[in-house]
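Input.
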Amino acid sequence: MAQFFLPKGSRINPRGRVHRAAAAQADAGPSASGGAARERGGEAGAPAIRVFRIYRFDPDSSEGPRVDTFEVSAKSCGQMVLDALIHIKSAIDSTLTFRRSCREGICGSCAMNINGINCLACTTALADLKSEVKIYPLPHMPVVKDLVPDLTKFYAQYASIEPWLKSDTPAPPDRERLQSKAEQERIDRPAACILCACCSTGCPSYWWNSDRYLGPAALLAAYRWIVDTRDEATGERLDQLEDPFRLYRCHTIMNCTDVCPKDLNPAKTIAEIKKMLATRRY
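Output.
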C-alpha cells in the first residue's frame, strides 16, 4: 500500500502560545459592550476584545510551525488588520515578523491570507471581519519567517517576461514616444498591478505547477507589454508564452480576479493572450 508523507515543517501545531488580554478586559470594566461599540463606530454588540490567531514559524528554531493566539483590546487594534499587527509587534510580541511599507495599498508588501482570503493587511478593515481573525502567509509559498513568504520564484517569473519597452526604432529626439488616449487606456489597468502576489498564490494551477506556469501576475504584466503600441517585440513576446505550461496551465478558475486588491482582471488578460495566439496561428 502506498504511503504518503507531508514535507518536514508542513504540519501546523494549532495550540501555540496564547497571549491573554486580562489587563485589557479589566480596563474595559462593566460597560465593555457599550464602550467597544463606541470604538467600532457605534455598532451594537461589537466585541471589547479582538482575537487574532497568527501563523508563526521560525526557521532557526527546532519547533515546527504553530498558530499563536493574541487577545487585543478593540481600542488598541486600530482600523485595519495591519494596524493590529503593528500593535501586537510593538506591545505584545516583538518577534512577530511581517512585511509592510506604504500602508496605502500601493506597495503590495503586506499581502497575506486573512480569514482564508488573500488580501492586503493595510486595506482590510477589522470592522468587516469577525471577532476572531486568522492570519497566515500567502499560501503555497516557502515561508521565510512567520508571515513573510519567499517570493524569489515569483519575482524571477516576473523578470522572465522582460517587463520593459523593446524597440529598435530610436525615440524621437525632441519628444517622448506618443500614444493616443485609447492606446494608453488599453495598458492603464494592467500597468496598475502592484506585484503583491495575491493572485498567483490564490491560483490552484499555480500551486501545482509554479515551477513552469508563470501565474496570473506575470502573465498580466506580459499582456501589458504585448498591447503597448510603443513596443516592437509583440511577436517575440507571444513566442515566449506559446507553451503548454507557461500560459496554458490557466484554466480560468477566476480566483486571481476575485482576490486582486486593485480590482484588476488577470483571467481576462490571459484569455486575451490565448486569443492572440489562436488568431496568429489561424
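The longest helix spans residues 266-281.
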